[in-house]
């Protein structure tokens, strides 16, 4: 057992590997469309890459919550 009597959780290393895998999948997905995006005007490319650069973060909230609590969603009534 770890210090303080709490057993270490397997969720943190599994979640960290899952996050790294998600980042690689997202990179492959976005770069697979780069040929078509690259043909657009630079000002049309900008919002596409800004959105794709932010959207990948959204699923991480649930993953980080699961790593800490073992639940994917917030308990009802939680802020």
Automatic annotation (TrEMBL):
Residue spans crossing the bilayer:
16-37, 43-64
> This protein's superkingdom?
Bacteria
Give the Pfam families listed for this entry.
DUF2842 (PF11003)
Task: Say if the entry is tagged with keyword Transmembrane helix.
Answer: yes
What are the protein's UniProt keywords? Answer: Membrane, Transmembrane, Transmembrane helix
InterPro entries found in the cross-reference section: DUF2842
Q: What is this protein called?
A: DMSO/TMAO reductase YedYZ heme-binding membrane subunit
Say which species the protein is native to. Sphingomonas kyeonggiensis
């Amino acid at each position: 057992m770890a210090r303080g009597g709490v057993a270490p959780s397997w969720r943190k290393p599994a979640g960290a590997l899952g996050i790294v895998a998600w980042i690689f999948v997202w990179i492959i997905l976005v770069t697979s469309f780069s040929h078509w995006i690259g043909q657009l005007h630079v000002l049309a490319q900008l919002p596409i890459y800004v959105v794709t650069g932010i959207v990948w973060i959204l699923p991480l909230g649930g993953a980080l919550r699961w790593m800490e609590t073992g639940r994917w969603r917030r308990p009802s009534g939680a802020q």
